[in-house]
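S.,

As promised, the magnesium ion run. Input:
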Amino acid sequence: MSRIVMKFGGTSVGSVDRIKNVSNIVQSVYDEGHEVVVVLSAMAGETDRLINLTKDISDDFNKEEYDVVISSGEQVSVGLLAAALHENGISAKSCLGWQIPIITSKDHKSARIEGIRSDLINKILDDKKVCVIPGFQGITSEGRVSTLGRGGSDTSAVAIAAAIKADFCDIYTDVDGVYTSDPNKIPDAKRLDKVSYEEMLEMASLGAKVLQTRSVETAMTNNVALRVLSSFEGADKENIGTIVEEEDKINDQRVVTGVTSSLNDCKITLIGVRDKPGIAAKIFSSLSENNINVDMIVQNISERSKTTDITFTIPKDDLSNAEKIMDLIKDDVPYESLLIDSNIAKISIIGVGMRSNAGVAAKMFSVLSDNDINIDVISTSEIKISILINKEQAEKATSMLHQYFINENE
Ligand code: ADP
Ligand code: ASP
Ligand code: MG
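Predicted complex:
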């Protein structure tokens, strides 16, 4: 007997028929004698619908009430599934984030899980019931409802798996695993049998939305055995999916594991910033204090002049906030002008094999130049190379890089 957390995403619970299908999958695992905790997303489109309601009231909707509104979609899914399981003759009980409780930080809209009490979940499992928990939601130490950021149900599932010491955390979604690139955009992308935590972390943060980045982080730190599976193919033995695990358990000799594309970033350039110590610290600490994640940073070298230009990328959703911050710090960090470019795509190649293979960057740049694609900004780490290009060329760049690094290197 194993203890298993099964998470189902929005499309997997997108209609009553899909919820009945989930109920059958859960039943088949429960009937094998396992202890089962189910974590659910809101029905597909529901979170977007709720967000639009808040926008109809205000663009600056109160953050605490925002979480009250947008966490409600998950409550509907868990009630529907628990009842569908009852119809199947399985005893199930739903419990909401505050009832468990799942304690989070106070960063409404993108709170971090700080602790999960396992007593209630253990009690439900000891009673031989299936425990059904809404993903995405928690409660702050002040007793306010919080949410974990878009795609946050993945993180709820992994954190619950860690808290109750589950043997597996299975993420059921609308594709049958993690692919070398988004299978809905790159038709010849291949399913990976295994991928390392580190590679998955980079892939998720660089555009592969199949797993929320924090869920991979949480799995990595707590050593949670993570599997990505399809809810559309049933729970048969053919549905092997992808295992996300430690690098040393993976023997593949690949250099590049995945190619990702993200249209979620925008680029800010501060022109004519003074070239002296403390300036970059001031810019980036004020962004981080406001929870804005900066990704790429480029500062031009100023040989003769006393000023320089600083370029960086942030998520598009944070743009208006970042503009306000740059305005506020203008007295401390004078600059001539600020340029914004939202017409960009970030394309990345990722693979632990890059550590031991020289020349990958050179090959990447020649594939792009052969296809007339101009590179705007480059950033690298040990296991990834990211470039910024014009958004219109994103599909072509992803497909050409996938063709070169994955298909031709099989
Ligand atoms: P869920 O609603 O189940 O959480 P998501 O829509 O968040 O599902 O994530 C699944 C989607 O992730 C897939 O439909 C696919 O288009 C996209 N995706 C992007 N990159 C990848 C990848 N490398 N492998 C698999 N899916 C990917
Ligand atoms: N319902 C939330 C969202 O759409 C959380 C999730 O699905 O993981 O982002
Ligand atoms: Mg998701």
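Residues 16-31 form the longest helix (16 residues). The pocket of aspartic acid (ligand 2) is lined by residues 9-10, 41-42, 47, 73, 135-136, 150-154 (CB under 6 Å).

- D.
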